[in-house]
Design goal:
2 domains; 9-stranded antiparallel β-sheet; alpha+beta; 342 residues; 6-stranded antiparallel β-sheet; 6 helices
Amino acid sequence: MSKKSVIILWVIALVLGISVTTLKLRAPVSGKANTERSRGQTLLDSFPADQVASIQLKGFEKSVTLTKKESGWVVAERGDYPANVSTINNLLRTIEQVKVNNAIEAGPSYGKRFGIDLSATSQEKHGTQLNFSNAANKNIAILFLGKDSDSGGRYIQNEADNSGIYVTSESFPTASVNPKDWLDTTFFNIEKIKSITISPTGQADAIDWKLTRADENAEFTLDGAKPNETLDTAITAPLKTILAGANFQDVASGTDVTTIEKAADRRVATIATIDGFTYTITLVAKPAVKVPDALAKPEEAPPTAEEEAYHLSVKVVANFPKERVKAADEKPEDAKSKDEAF
């Protein structure tokens, strides 16, 4: 056999090898793939969403554990702070109902071609691992989310299914490995504010200014105001619901809270309510993110100013009256019912 013939044979063998590999990895346009799940079926044959008591999402550098306790779902990495139940339920419902768009005959070793490579050193190539377990810590399902599919949806692999990798009808945009993305960001709302006291920066025990009012229907007055000074109610009226529109980005650790409460540049806001609650709020201005000079371009407009952001800690104390204040003309029968209600 001539050298030329050998080369031709090797080329043919190489082409055939590539063709076979391509055929193995190609999702069939019609017909049924030789995989456990096929197009139109749910990804999992069964998924008892109501039995899930723990969800762990693992990425390249970050991970988050969501645990269902008696009080509800919590984020373990944030000191068991309440989790966003709506987001969790949406994920569980999606896993239970998600359909297969395409089935690809490929074993687990081909995962890296679809963004599922646990040895990779970037989140994009590593993918996201989802572990679902029940209250007895028994495994329900382990899934791997890869990259998005060009045709829509996302590549996903089921650890219990070695027959293929699937393209699902959903892309799982909320399946984040960042703990802060799972927090219940509902902020506390202070109602029936009676007084607001603000300290100067760096002088937590001093008073910069204080507003008070007699009841929840009254307007604020400024303590220490001069006779010729009057408050602009258009400015002070919104302070009656001062934190109604506030939101937070993340939850600080215990160490961070101690740092905030001892910071030299802290300010303290003390808010008392008509119902007997006192909120002590310590605020430390969060430094604005500045674009390094090396990255700034002279022809570009400067970035818009960020909204004011603060590191914040809150302590709440309740001071309820021990006895009900009775009206002078109160009837005995009314007094009894009001005492019981009190």
